[in-house]
Specification:
By secondary structure, this protein is of the alpha+beta class. The chain is 33% helix and 35% strand. α1 (41-63) crosses α2 (100-113). The chain starts with 5 loop residues before the first strand and ends with a strand.
Amino acid sequence: MQIEVQVKQISPATGQGTARTHEVLIDRPREKGGEDRGMMGGEQLLVSLGGCFLSNLLAAVRSRDADIHDVQLQITGALVSAPARFSAIEVRVSAETADRAMLEKLVEMADRACIVANTLRPAVDLEFQLT
């Protein structure tokens, strides 16, 4: 199985990414020479990690009919240079639930099931934690 997306230039500083019927703009902030029409690629990488993890977490919640709702993620990437990259990424998970043990179990399951987390883990210090 493969996943394929397309990215094409649509202005001097902006790209348009397409996956299936969905589109997203990729750009730089004005202070870095961009038009600020979309997130930078690094920001999208963090959003992609969050989206992948959240999708797996919500599927696990639904399949167990768990009383977990209002899930929120705060994702922070620590940057280093030479070459520029994330050296560590922290995903802080919060949710409304009376069953913290169930939430902990489902967070671990979602982490293991997330394609993006599994891809990034060998390259960066990746940590999921409940708040």
